[in-house]
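Subject: Integrin beta

B.,
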Amino acid sequence: GPRCDLYKNIIDYGCSAAAVITAQSTINISLQQSQVSPQQVSMSFLPGEEKLVDVQVFAPTKGPLDLYILMDFSNSMADDLDNLKSMGKELASLVKQLSDDYTIGFGKFVDKVIEPQTDMRPIKLQQPWPNSDPPFSFKNVIKLTNDLDAFTRDLQKERISGNLDAPEGGFDAILQAAVCGDKIGWRAHSTHLLVFSTESAFHYESDGANVLSGILQRNDELCHLNADGNYTHDINQDYPSIPTLVRLLGKHNIIPIFAVTAHSYTYYEKLKDYFPIAEVGLLQEDSSNILQLMDDAFKNIRSKMSIRAEDRPKAFETQFLSTNGSVGKFQMLLKAQRMSNEQPVCQMDPDEKQGTMRVKPTTFNAAVNVKASILCPTCDCEKVDKADRCYGNGDLVCGKCQCYGGWVSTFCNCSVSTSAKDTSQCIQPGTTEPCSGRGDCLECGTCVCYNPEQFEGPYCQWDKTQCQRYGGFLCNDRGSCSMGRCVCSEGWQGSACECSKSNQTCLDSKGGVCNGQGECVCGRCKCNDPTKMTSTCEPNFEAQLGVCEGTRSCVQCQAWKTGEKKEKDKCDECPFKITLVDELKEREKVLDSCSFRDEDDDCTYYYTVENPKDPLVKFLDVQVLEKKECPPASLLWLLPLLLFLLLLLALLLLCCWKYCACCKSLCQSCLALLPCCGRGRMVGFKEDEYLLRQSLLTSDHLDTPMVRTGPPKGTDVVRWKVTDNVHRSPNHPQALIKPNPKETIQFPISLRLNRMFSENLSRPDSRDAEQLRKEVADNLNEVYKQIPGAQKVQKTAFRMQRNAGKRQDYAIMDTVLSAPRSSYPDIVKLTEKNVQSGNVHDLKVVPGYYTVATDRGAIEFQEGVESVDVHVPLFVKDEDDEKKQLLVEAVDVPIGIAEIGKRLVNITIIKEHATNIFSFLQPAYTYSRQDGVANIPISREIIEDGRTQVTYRTRDLTAKDKKDYVTVEGDLSYAPGETQKIVPVRLLELGEKDGLLEDKQVKQFVMDLSNPREGAKLGPGTIKFSPGETEKNINASSPGGHLHSPENLKAKATGPRSIRLNWDPLSGNPMGYKVKYWIYGDPEKDAQVLDVKTPQAELTNLYPYCDYEMRVCGYNAIGDGYDTDMVSCQTLEDVPGEPGRLAFNVISPTVTQVSWAEPAETNGNITAYEVIYTPIDDARKPVGPAKKVKIDNPKKRMLLIENLQNAQTYQYKVRAMNSIGWGPFKDATINLASQPVRPLSIPIIPDIPIVDAEAGDEYDSYLMYSNEVLKSPTGSKTPSVSGDGGSATRNLSASSSPMSTLSSNYRGAGGSFTTETSTTYMSGAGKMDGSNYIETNLTQFIVMISNSILTLVCLCHPSDARLSPGVPDTPSRLVFSALGPTALKVSWQEPHCEKDILGYCVLYQLLSGGEMKRINVTNPAENSVIIQDLLPNHSYLFKVKGQSQEGWGPEREGVITIESAVDPKSPLSPMPGSPFTLSTPSAPGPLVFTALSPDSLQLSWEKPRKPNGDILGYVVTCEQLHGGGDVRSFQVNGDSSETSLTVPNLTENIPYKFKVQARTTQGFGPEREGIITIESQDGSKMNPTDKALDIN
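Prediction pasted inline below.
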């Protein structure tokens, strides 16, 4: 049995207690006075044991300090040296300020004294520049000393030197300063700072920039300073490499400070990232700020203190835990491994399983020396000489036989001499090959298998891959193969581990096991009667014939004793009993409602089926209606009578045909001659001709009567048509114009509905009229959609038809269908067909009446009707001739026996000269609102004096009735000689909100004149009233022939990149139409314009799933007409684009974390992602199967993949899916073995760009991070996939917001970029179920300026998904509108809430601080407030939140500034009439986190794109995301393009929230937030050069 185990297990295995050896680990601690405590720890471990050690670091404010200044002495640094010499006193003061125990030294460097670095001419070797020293590589000038006077005195003696090329040999100097500790003077227990000052870049190992590359040997990393401090091997060896410097400076505890000028700042900024702790400062050209730079750098270094373990033996793992967040206190977790590289630690070399490691702060030299060793004890076991168990051929030691010489095998029962060549003992009975052909046969029949990982057994007869499989998996992947059979994991059983011991999969809908009708076998129900049962042995009527059909026969036999189971024995087999009731439950409340006809009595019976309420009852609850429904008595006696009547009718028809040959047809003869054999009916027009004067017309139709003579019984339908302009000859100019067959024109259509007319239908705004109008439109659109190019019907109205007999009370429907001119015959044919059938789709119509295209139709004479009016259109147009003629013709009688008598009627319309002309006196009128009334004069020009009238009416454009004015309408009557009337229009004062506007929108309303009487005519155009130059005036101007705005503009998306527009055609002969369209959020001035000639347009090449806004206007020779109101429409979804760049976080050579960005073009809502990874060869061809992982939660753009093949190249492909389907793949190829491991892993989630609205473009690179850390169970063979997290996030639809959630609407240069983003995080270390889920919102600002109204829109995501039920979400949209230099309107979009919103709260204060002001909005219908007490040119922070009865919801924040010109003498007083604009300072760039150790990280960010002032520095705050611990703040000075900060003393597995805020001359800007968690996954020493690989 096992030799090493827990004490209890060893006793259970049968070992005696006396024979058990117990090994005990130890720990000894030694304390002395030092910067660290303790100083010495001795520990012993058992394999697998781990221990915690408390380490405390004492960081006195003025601890020991060694400061070594290393300065570039090339000629360009001459002024820098002079300044440093003059700063002797200031330098001394600074050093004393930094430490009470200090030393200071000085060194200088130039470059290697060899070509091409140095001019090797003798004269230049003596003095390269005037008044300079000879060239040199490095010299230690002043050894570290505490004598500041001597330091200053020796520094004055130094002179500048020089070289040729720009890069300097500073790396040689740094290395010598590090390794020559005694000669430089570094002390053992002090902080070592090396200030490196230069204005040039650096040479490094094999940099290829000179002929030395590849010629000189590598740097030996040894000290080569002579007695004078000169570096002697500069021409013999190469420069050191960057990793060498990093390693050596870390080894000797030296922290570099790079003080460099702007020429080389970027080089050293990148170099700094390679060091665990380093600082870079921007040096002035003359180094005048070097002391301030050193002071700032030293303070930053003190804030970056972290701890690390050095010289760690291979058998140990270390991990550092911060305790209580206290600075200087750490906990070290030290663990002894059991195995290392698949080798037991007790079998490792002694130096790999024991040793002394140094645990030290990065800024100190002092360390805790931890002497650790692993106990591998051996026991003095019991020994039995010549034991019987060993057949007397060996000793029994610790339970095992130790054989004497010449004897082998487990029990020493095999002689070497007799069995060495005998292989028969290796042959399994029944086989012929030794060791089954899978191994070698050794002495005494011992088989050694070739591949022990695959073959096992005494004869190697068992193959570990040949056990039973289930579902294609060996042992169902729920066990292991051993000795030819599956050894199942806990909870599984069966020959292939296919059976679960749990009965959870056998539970029925009531919670029982197999419904009591079977037993649970292997995780499945084995039912007594499986043919009629579900998988849980419940009655399965649906699987048979359906619930009703499955219960039919049982209901029939139990209730009525009929049917196929009416025999008692069959009926007793039914699995349920019925209940007879007087009334059945409603269908919605039961499982199913059934009815069947009983064949025995032809009656219908009804019953319901539902599941039982009692969970213990296993059968259905069936309730049967006690009373059947039977048909009435038989009507067979009617058959003889019907046969007799049919024979009599046939005889009568035969007589008619025989004796009435004078009639034209059999049908007409019979019906006409039955009463008296008299004459038949005649129909025709009553009048021959009409003479009409156009000036006297009051309608565009003429009702001309058609009469019927003869017997009035029966029905006749007469079809008619009308022809316009019959007076014109074929050569008339108008007749020669060929119309465009593809032109869309209007076809009026009239039908008689099978519905009575009511007074409500005459009122278009009534509910009855609206419902009937919708019903008509739905059915007619369904019928006419088969006409190519046909649009939806419009202008539907209802009326009555006079003189229609019994059907004159039926409703006549008039509507207009727009379709191509060429579709006219198809429309006529389709209309006649549907009218004759009595149905237009599902709309009931009465045959006999219709009108199509105004020039033809049909009327119906009902029984008893002698006269019907024909509704004839007159086609009156301005371009008509002075005298025009129309011809109306009765075409035929398709239904009825009447003949057509008077077939034609002529209509003549004569244009007359007007007797009077009504018009306006002038083209424009201006009135002040303060006047209260606009008096509009209407002039009458008299041609023939007399009385006359005209109608007037106002209507809205941008001015609104009851808001800007009061509408008026009526008739003006002019007496003889009267030439002018005044129409007063009341003007209204501005409201309180509108009164704040100084630059107003255009306000217009229109006055129309119509219906002139007594021969009068109208002058040209209507009158429009619009504002003047100031906001208090309303102008009136005549359009002078400008076209009105088109009506009924409709937009419909026809595809992902197209929208179709339709509108009503304009009267007045427009030359065409202009369609303006733009992306929602863009200014209208940037709209694209499409010119079309017909009242429809197709917008193409649009962006998918994008909101567009549109207007339409007509134009003629005068110019553009008036625009329609704006309409919006969203294009349809399309497949998404490829995901953003892939990023890999390499955990180990077989484990990686792949993440990706959301597609730049989502083209809809992303619903899932698919990841495919395939092993490939160098030719990128697959060498193994591809594996797919589908991630159903689109917010989880990350996948942890384990158990990859070591050193194998993989191709990774990712694609996104929305409701349309899958998009294209984004792929990348990587071999993990070639990448650095990142043991202290920060999971990376690249996200969509964070857009700075004022910058107008996205950042070139971006990485966003979360605290989401994914793990797999130990030994898992399946990849870890982030779970759905239980998100309760609400997605906004297009109807609730113009921008769809999680979508990007982008247009190229010169356009706009509008994005909504969210990054999702899982909180809490170790909570891998994702139940605690939050969402962090990233806000963008988009400034829109339209019609001088400035609006700032904050587009945001729905808020925190952790909210309690009933608490409002964050308001999803925040809008700022500037009303003046000190007034602002703040509005928001109603947040989602499961309960009613009770009100809102608006908080605001100056961004720089001050009193927080509060406005309570108690009316939930109001979603805006006006604030008038703001200061100009000051930034404000606004917060808005909603309230329900469950409490207040989270806040939506926004920062805004109203910029305007102010009085120089009074900065808080804006200049009267000065313009004002909205602006918002931009936040710092995206936050980038880099792990340095388990409890420290480096945070970096980019400079704000528009900082709103000069940047003075930054404020960084750090706090735990879920509370606990103190809020820490850091001050960072400088305004470089990229800034970084090292944050120490963090606690791993705890999510932190970081905020970075720029401090400018104007105050503080907005914050950039980021959330991060450091989780240590591998305790090995961190390589500072490790980086997460990022592939585009």
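The chain has 20 helices and 106 strands.

T.
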